[in-house]
User: What shape does this take?
Amino acid sequence: MAAFELQEVDHVAVAVRDLDTAVAWYASALGATVAHRERIESDGVEEALLKVADSYVQLLTPTRDDSPVAKFLERRGEGLHHVGFRVSDCAAALESMKSAGAAVIDERPRPGSRGTTVAFVHPKGAFGTLIELVQE
Assistant: This one.
C-alpha cells in the first residue's frame, strides 16, 4: 500500500508555441477561462491554467530555447506534454515511485507553480508518460 494518497488528476499539460493564441482558442472553442497564469523561471516556461471542474488544462510555452518544453516542441511539436497527479505527500509519492522502479527526473520535491510542491517522473519506466506529482 502506498504511503501517500493519490487524490485526482491535477492537470493535463499541453505544450504550445504561442500561449496567447492557445488561450484564445480554448476560450472560443470550449468557453474555458484562465484561472491562473505564471512564468516559472526555473523551468523556462510560462503557463496558463484553465479550470475544468477540480482540475486544470495547463498550457505551457517556453520562455527560453534550452527549456525542456522548447526541446519537446522541437522534437514532437505541439501537443500533450505530461499528466499531473495531485498527491497528499509529494515526497512519499516520489519515494513510492522510485521503489516501484520508476526513473525520476527530480530526486526530491521542489517548488512548483501556484505554491505547490512538485516532482517529475521520467517517461521511461512510466509507460511513455511524463508524470508530475503535485502536492497543494
Observations:
- DSSP finds three helices and eight strands in the chain.
- The chain has a mean pLDDT of 95.
- The helical segments are 19-30, 68-76, 90-99.
- The longest strand covers residues 6-15.
